[in-house]
Design a protein that fits this description.
Layout (H helix, E strand, L loop, with lengths): L2 H17 L5 E3 L7 H16 L4 E3 L1 H9 L10 E3 L3 H10 L8 H7 L4 E4 L3 E5 L4 E5 L2
Parallel strand pairs: 1-2, 2-3, 3-4
Antiparallel strand pairs: 4-5, 5-6
């Protein structure tokens, strides 16, 4: 095995004991975008999904997700929280136009919940939605 695979295995093993006690796992802020970290994050997200741990994914976690939508597609216990640029990237990754509706993005991910951050925050799972102002 490569040293990267060994490191990823160690990370997963060190986290294993926490998964059964987690109420939610927040993935993203401050992770960075190097491939080594992204690979490990993919495995952590998959493990959380396998254990049915709710996920909130933001920041650099969304960067990982945008390249591997299968990690969240159809998972009822995930919330994605993209800003404007992250939202555009998610839409493109899903094969949609950058300015696609929030409902269309959620539906393309099999009704994953998304909180689209911006001047007006919007929340949807593709079935229902809400819009609120920051004022």
């Amino acid at each position: 095995k490569s040293s990267q695979e060994e490191e990823e295995k160690k990370v997963l093993e060190s986290m294993e004991r926490f998964f059964d006690n987690l109420h939610v796992l927040i993935v993203g802020p401050g992770l960075g975008r190097d491939e080594k970290t992204s690979s490990c994050v993919r495995k952590v997200i998959q493990k959380a999904r396998d254990k049915e741990v709710p996920l909130l994914i933001d920041g650099d976690g969304l960067h990982v997700i945008s390249k591997h939508l299968e990690l969240v597609k159809g998972y009822p216990w995930v919330i994605l929280t993209p800003n404007v640029n992250e939202y555009k990237n998610l839409c493109k990754s899903a094969g949609l136009k950058e300015d696609s509706s929030l409902s269309d993005l959620c539906k393309s991910l099999d009704n994953v919940a998304v909180i689209k951050k911006g001047e007006f925050d919007a929340v949807s799972d593709g079935k229902t939605g809400k819009l609120s102002s920051r004022h």
